[in-house]
From TrEMBL:
UniProt-recorded name of the protein: Glycosyl hydrolase
Family statement drawn from the similarity comment of this UniProt entry: Belongs to the glycosyl hydrolase 1 family.
Catalytic residues identified in the record: 383 (nucleophile)
InterPro entries linked to this entry: GH (IPR017853), GH_1_N_CS (IPR033132), Glyco_hydro_1 (IPR001360), Glyco_hydro_1_AS (IPR018120)
GO terms of molecular function: hydrolase activity
Taxonomic lineage: Bacteria, Bacillati, Bacillota, Bacilli, Lactobacillales
Keyword annotations from UniProtKB, A to Z: Glycosidase, Hydrolase
The keyword Isomerase appears for this protein: no
SUPFAM superfamilies, A to Z: (Trans)glycosidases
Length: 485
């Protein structure tokens, strides 16, 4: 068989898109709690208060004015407040994951649920909630895979500290890590520090108010130091911990064989590789230092930062793969399509999803080969999936053959990467294994899951869980360890 005997088949979710339980059980406010819904034509918005006390909004990928505070307006709809309510359905959902045969379940812990302000005040009810989830997974033999921080930050740290631009936030994050490492040290083996660290760049994700490159890269340095400290701390608490990083990987191909296009693709791919280089190799790559020099960016470091980063390298690379893109210097001929958090260039050889994401199964094999041959440590595909509108038939069925087709082709390419290319791949957790709120658009109709949840874009619905056709298909894939596609 191509897949290792102990291969970690499972699924992945994020607290802010799935959990709900807004302010339940002592949870504090998160930046994502102030983000409205939307759709592919209507952008998500951040609601905030100005220094003068006026309520206003900006697009969710933009920065807030200096001194602005996150705000919850009772007239607005905020999808994270209920999401698809894992908070009250976790036993039912994990039982369904077990029925599919999951070997692991990747979920994130809300920092604000455990440390309501992100500081050193600990909420026992939040800790117990996640312990209940972990215990429920272990009851079925499902390995918990925990993302420590997934695309948000406690709102207090954003409002009072300007988020990750402030070095003090490193200490608060490490305290959060120490709290959960100690609490779950005998129950959780696999951890990832930051979700898609290369996409952490705004108030929504890291609590910073400035959109200037200087501010974003300074915040990134603080993230690197925090991750390295967490790795060292985790290994000291339990040497058997496997602590990884997580990056969004979107490989770019040269649009033509023109050398300038080839180099444009190299420059694009460096945007992902930089974040892996620091966390896997333990130092800033030379090309990034030259970029800082050209752009007048100066990273403020404390004595010992470089040594910390060098010592706190990760055990594995987790990455998301949804699509590929293309690079060219002839920008006047470029057509842009949808992308995972970034604009992507249309590749004439690929089809796209309804949301404009290029469908490229071979790109997953290419990604696995490129990453493994660059870093030579185990890889974990922790996000991959197909967002689509699912129709419920008159008899209540969801026939999602398009999703089955997408997954079968991508899994085949993973098999090829293992069997033909020798890639060390430890697991696969498709994104949104149960329907959750879309991170990019804030809508429900863009669905990824093997399990349907009755909820619409305005938050209306019964939250009833229903198996889609892909549920039984994925169950057979896991049962045959990837041989039956």
């Amino acid at each position: 068989m191509s897949f290792p005997e102990n291969f970690l088949w499972g699924g992945a979710t994020a607290a802010n898109q799935y959990e709900g339980g807004y302010l339940s059980g002592g949870k504090g406010l998160s930046t994502l709690d102030a983000i409205t819904g939307g759709d592919k034509d209507t952008p998500r918005m951040i609601t905030f208060k100005t220094k003068e006390g006026e309520v206003s909004q900006v697009k969710a990928n933009q920065s807030l004015p200096e001194g602005a505070l996150g705000y919850i307006d009772s007239e607005q709809y905020y999808p994270s407040h209920v999401a698809t309510d894992f908070y009250h359905h976790y036993k039912e959902d994990i039982a369904l994951f077990a029925e599919m045969g999951f070997k692991c379940f990747r979920f994130s812990m809300s920092w604000a649920r455990i440390c309501p302000q992100g500081t050193e005040e600990v909420n026992e009810e939040g800790l117990q909630f996640y312990e209940n989830i972990i215990d429920e997974c272990l009851k079925y033999g499902i390995e918990p895979v925990v993302t420590i921080n997934h695309f948000d930050i406690p709102m207090y740290l954003a409002d009072e500290y300007d988020g990750w631009s402030n070095r003090k936030v490193i200490d608060y994050f490490v305290f959060f890590c120490e709290t959960i490492f100690n609490r779950y040290k005998d129950k959780v083996k696999y951890w990832m520090t930051f979700n898609e660290i290369n996409f952490l760049r705004s108030w929504t994700q890291i609590g910073i108010h400035s959109s200037e490159p200087q501010s974003k890269y300074q915040a990134a340095h603080h993230l690197f130091v925090a991750s390295a400290k967490a790795v060292e701390l985790g290994h000291s608490i339990n040497p058997n911990f496997q602590i990884g990083m997580m990056v969004a990987y979107i490989p770019s191909y040269p649009m033509t064989s023109k050398p300038e296009d080839v180099f444009a693709a190299i420059e694009y791919n460096r945007q992902h590789e930089f974040y892996m280089d620091v966390q896997v190799k333990g130092y800033y790559p030379a090309h990034q230092l030259k970029k800082f020099e050209r752009e007048g960016i100066t990273i403020a470091k404390e004595a010992g930062d470089d040594e910390l980063i060098a010592k706190g390298t990760v055990d594995f690379i987790g990455f998301s793969y949804y699509m590929s893109t293309a690079s060219t210097v002839n920008l006047e001929n470029v057509k842009y399509i949808g992308g995972n958090q970034v604009p992507a260039v249309k590749n004439p050889y690929l089809t796209e999803s309804e949301w404009g994401w290029a469908v490229d199964p071979l790109g997953l094999r290419i990604s696995l080969v490129q990453i493994y041959e660059r870093y030579h440590i185990p890889l974990f595909v922790v996000e991959n999936g197909f967002g689509a509108v699912d129709e419920v038939t008159e008899n209540g069925e969801i026939i999602d053959d398009y999703r089955i087709d997408y997954f079968s082709k991508h899994i085949q390419c993973m098999k090829d990467a293992i069997e033909l290319d020798g890639v060390d791949l430890i697991g696969y957790t498709p994104w949104g294994c149960i329907d959750i709120v879309s991170a990019g658009t804030g809508e429900m109709k863009k669905r990824y899951g093997f399990i349907h949840v009755d909820m619409d874009d305005q938050g209306n619905g019964t939250l009833k869980r229903t198996k889609k056709k892909s549920f039984d298909w994925y169950k057979e894939v896991i049962a045959t360890n990837g041989e039956q596609l």
